[in-house]
Amino acid sequence: MTQELQQTTGTTAPSTVEYGTGVSPASAVESSVAAAARTLAEEPSLQETLDRIVELAVTMVDGCDAAGISLVTRKGQIETPAASHALARRGDELQYALNEGPCLDAIRETDLVRTDDLATEPRWQRWADQVQDELGVRSMLCVQLFTSETSHGALNLYSRSVAAFPATTLSMVSTFAAVAAAALTAARTEEQLTSAVQTRTVIGQAQGILMERYQLSAQRAFGVLSRVSQDSNIKLYDLARQVVETRVLPQRPSAD
What we know:
The protein is of the alpha+beta class. The protein has helices at 25-41, 46-60, 86-98, 102-108, 125-135, 170-214, 218-232, 236-246, and strands spanning 66-72, 78-83, 112-115, 139-146, 152-159. Strands 2-1-5-4-3 form a 5-stranded antiparallel β-sheet, sandwiched between helices. It is elongated.
């Protein structure tokens, strides 16, 4: 299940050149993260950006068997919108259900949470026991993600090996998490702008239909849509889309 991208994790000084490659460990990490940033920038949607982040995490981080992203929704709930494997999704779900675990600590308390061996981990005993028995997970690394001032989450890396995430990997993972958070922010902003343009377009089309059919001004047509939306308890965009698709208004406009 583990996808691995060979990288140097030695403890020699940053200026040391890896034998036979002419590339220092620090340069290799920088190149890897830079390539990931370029890849994420090319993803066309928010969901595809999320999916690519977890794929890259498994590829870039030695020892990572599965990765997931936990995000806090507007309603305050925590969910996993992307996971590289069912193992990560199930591991996250168990944390939410038990209200304990490293990804929750990363979201709520600290920037980075690491555990080398869940068999001896005292912090989340219920979750640790269950995730070991059910999924075979032995170690984990979670890094906090800030995708905006009001939205945050965590990048969760799972491994079936003990001590899979040594201290030498923490800097690279933290840097990658920052790149991932920036990519998510950009993708979310683009999606919101696209949605806003689409909403205005559909409402404008519905206005045009009402203007033509009932000989209304643009202002009156919009007023009719707003009134029917409120009376029918239907969002304005959904009502406008219905008008565009069916060419029928659920309630005929009345004379003012």
